[in-house]
Specification:
The complex is a heterodimer of chains A (269) and B (264). Chain A has 269 residues and is mainly α. Chain B has 264 residues and is mostly helical. Helix content of chain B is 75%, strand content 0%. Classes of the chains: A mainly alpha (269), B mainly alpha (264).
Chain lengths: 269, 264
């Protein structure tokens, strides 16, 4: 057991090292996320100017939601894991994992975790820089239970994000070029994951539909718990649904891996 | 080389791209769907916000749809005509494949930025134009031929400004050697173009309205359809297009001096 864990700990440490090499890339990206926050700030401030209550929330609460979403994204979001898997399959680098006693999903997950430790730490820098400007506008609800439920929701949200990215990476076994699929899923995730607007602003029926999809549990769900857009009993009712999505997506990833390998041709001498 | 000769070269590039698109029809379909999805996402966002508010900075729902559709039209035209070529330029400078462009008997910026077109981007610019027409219809506007010609000219100015900002962004590769991901900064900045000018206050107004003309290039054409010809704003947009294009050409040429060829 220890040997197994040690194997992935090493993968994590290697991932940490290689991601620290790209620290400037992540730093620039996190800074631009806060430029995006300026777009959000200007748009929503203008919207709130004519209506001080939107969906039952004030401007400060909506801004808090978006700031939390950005931070959550850097801690649990899948950035380019699908591209990396795509590259490894296309270039044949995946062959080395077929010959070694290592689980490819766990290996990639170790690298993903390392990358999120680096990107999550780096997003705190522009956040701290922006706090003097935004701090007085942010409104976090009271209650330690929000952290107690929000943090597991974040962890499971990360698992969903990574597994979806892994599944898209697996599509390479069938299509070779998957960039179009990835950007298509990005558009879906941005609207159904609550990145464009808080999902609770959707008409009631549409909001109910989103709750049945995995995108809802990727980032909206943890961010909504932490920022008070979801009540305690709703969070407790939806956490098992989120867990079910994690298990379901694990199963799908395993199936795609198994089926994909049947189509894979390893060439080399 | 005469302008006619450049036009002939450009037509040859379009022919090559279209033949290539016909070879990869599935790819064309997927990318058209991708662009359509992103356009829908932006329009949907506006529609959802207007479910809860009556106006954004004095703009009604369909006025905002007109503004967002104008921003999308300019961006899709950029994607259709120039994106792939300029994106590849950044990569080619890094790998040394830019030699191929420099070896061609023509202006390097023209050769580098017009090699390929994206038919899916162009197909979606037609859709964006459809959204503009729908918003105009819902607003009960009846623009005359002159208004439409002016709108087209202003969209063209917007295209020139977006082209220039993209060239400036990618030209960083001449200094940084690796500008991978820098194109993302262009998209972040372009998002400001979807907002009404009146929503900007204080420092953001100076930066995004007056220094970076990203807000002006979308607001002025939309306002022209809504309120008619405003000579001051039209002259400002045209002057900005000329200034930003000159700056892009200057920076590109300065960067070119730093380019070290891949040949041994």
């Amino acid at each position: 057991m220890y040997a197994v864990l040690n194997k992935y700990r090493t993968a994590f440490l290697i991932g940490l090292q290689s991601n620290v090499v790209y620290r400037w890339n992540f730093a620039i990206r996190s800074c631009f996320s806060f430029v995006q926050l300026a777009v959000i700030f200007i748009l929503w401030r203008a919207a709130y100017a004519s209506s001080p209550d939107i969906g039952g929330f004030g401007f400060g609460q909506t801004l808090t939601y978006f700031v939390t979403l950005i931070v959550v994204q850097f801690f649990i979001g899948a950035f380019n894991e699908d591209y990396q898997i795509n590259e490894e399959i296309r270039n044949g680098l995946i062959n080395q994992f077929l010959l070694k006693p290592i689980n490819y999903f766990s290996y990639r997950f170790s690298i993903f975790t390392a990358a999120r430790v680096v990107s999550g730490s780096l997003v705190l820098v522009p956040l701290l820089a922006a706090l003097p400007l935004l701090g007085h506008l942010l409104v976090f609800p009271h209650g330690a239970w929000r952290l107690a439920l929000g943090l597991p929701a974040m962890v499971m949200g990360g698992l969903i994000q990574f597994t979806i990215a892994f599944c898209f990476g697996m599509f390479t076994f069938w299509f070779l070029e998957i960039q179009g699929f990835i950007i298509l899923s990005l558009a879906l995730e941005s609207i159904l994951g609550g990145q464009m607007f808080p999902l609770d602003l959707l008409p009631r029926a549409a909001f109910r539909v989103t709750q049945c999809l995995p995108f809802y549990y990727q980032m909206y769900f943890p961010a909504a718990i932490l920022t008070g857009r979801i009540s305690g009993h709703v969070a407790l009712r939806q956490l098992p649904v989120q867990a079910a999505w994690v298990v379901g997506l694990f199963g799908l990833a395993a199936l795609l891996w198994k089926r994909g390998l049947r189509r894979h041709t390893a060439v080399g001498g | 080389m005469s302008p006619g000769r450049y036009f002939t070269i450009w037509l040859a590039c379009i022919r090559y791209t279209l033949v290539r698109t016909l070879m990869f029809r599935g790819d064309f379909f997927i990318w058209s769907l991708v662009e359509l999805c992103w356009m829908s996402v932006n329009v949907l966002m506006i529609l959802v916000i207007y479910q809860h508010t009556a106006s954004i900075a004095g703009w009604s729902e369909y006025q905002m749809v007109l503004l967002v559709a104008t921003a999308m039209l300019i961006q899709r035209l950029l994607m259709g005509f120039f994106w792939t070529s300029i994106f590849e330029m950044g990569r080619n400078v890094r790998t040394g494949d830019f030699d191929f462009v420099l070896a061609q008997p023509g202006n390097p910026l023209f050769m580098a930025s017009t090699r390929k077109i994206d038919p899916d981007g162009l197909a979606n610019s037609v859709l964006a134009l459809g959204v503009v027409a729908y918003a105009v219809h819902r607003l009960g506007l009846h623009p005359g031929a002159l208004d439409l010609a002016l709108y087209a000219a202003l969209v063209l100015c917007g295209l020139v400004i977006h082209f220039s900002i993209l060239v400036l962004t990618i030209s960083l590769v001449f200094w940084l050697k690796n500008a991978q991901g820098m194109e993302g900064s262009y998209f972040t900045l372009a998002d400001f173009g979807r907002l009404p000018r009146a929503a900007f206050k204080g420092a953001s107004r100076i930066l995004f309205v007056w220094i970076l003309p990203l807000v002006v290039v979308t607001n002025v054409p939309a306002r022209t359809l809504l309120q008619g010809f405003h000579p001051g704003w039209v002259a400002w947009t045209a002057a900005m297009a000329a200034a930003w294009f000159s700056l892009a050409v200057f920076v590109f040429n300065r960067g070119l001096r730093r380019y070290s060829s891949a040949s041994s």
